Amino acid sequence: MVITVIILLILAGITIATLMGDNGLLNKADKAKEQNRKQTSIEIMKLKITNIQMQSYDENGKVATLQYLADKLCEDVEIQYVSLNSHPTEEKKESVIVEEGKSIYTKLKEYPYEFEINSSLQLKIDGSDNVSSSDGNMTDLTISNSDLLHLYNNIITKMNDANSIELLLNDTILLPAVLSINDNIDYIINNPSSFLEPILKNENAVKALANNEYAKSKIKQNEIWLSELKKCEYAYVEWTQPIVTKNITTVEEGTITVDGSVGSGGSPACLALDGKKSNGEGGYWWPNMTPAWWQVEFPYEIRIKSIDYYNQYSTAAHNLIITARLYVDSTKKVPIGDEFSSNAAWQRVSISGIKENEIITNTIYFYKTTGNAGIGELVINADKFIF
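Above: the chain's sequence. Below: its structure in token form.
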């Protein structure tokens, strides 16, 4: 009986030592849990620093300075403090002026560890445990421009689900950086089944593509993307019709051409877009012959909502008679609205038959079939296609 009790006490001692000792299971479990928590905080901080460096590259075309990093960490809601001193007595986020060769100290709200970041953007946790403990040195978090480009270049090819694509498209910093690499744009354009629909639903993504000249050139060469974007409201912006006030045939944003057979009795073609709709305001284009044509061509496409025609001025009634029609080009195969007529000075005619938002063109071709009149003014109400 005594021996049994002794054996049980020995076993109990072994069990307690196994569980509670310095190398006990409970202690090891606590250490593992703590190590995992510390490693999680390290990864979060490294990710924040990497994102800030991406932002610096996007904004300034260069890697971040410690001052830039400190300023951005101060704006982060997950950061408890940014300080020039380790474990400051007053833990708060405030702007700091970083001296050359000095470090900053910061801490995540959800974790008990303080990080030191030096002027070389190397990271240390709690002043003693290096993030990289294998060689005892602080972890270097600096990212060169070429490293950033490599990172951006690999992101897009890993987009294999709708959620990750959506996250990228909504990121106003990362998306332009990804699109700064032509290979990424090629990958997007060549994979419409993955990217076309989510981009069409995302205003940020549509505008980012439109702001990239290489992307615009590739889209113009791709009928699938081009036709679908023309149906997308995000691909249009409000357009202001250019006003021509000089006796020229070239508009600042386009070119005006006229029937070469119009003789010296005609008036300058530019006056059809001078913004003046009455005799008291200004001039008009008068070809003084039939038939005759007038055309304006813009270096971009517009989506037409409506067009108003204003007749010219004349004291002779026969010079106010006109029947004409607008088309999308000189082939006259696609009309813009119905044929229209006028017989009074500066008479306004709202052209009927224009189906709003259906006509998308870069050219408006005016063709007169009868009468001597020309164009007092064309007022075009449209949106501009940004691709």
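Residues 179 and 185 are 6 Å apart (CA to CA).
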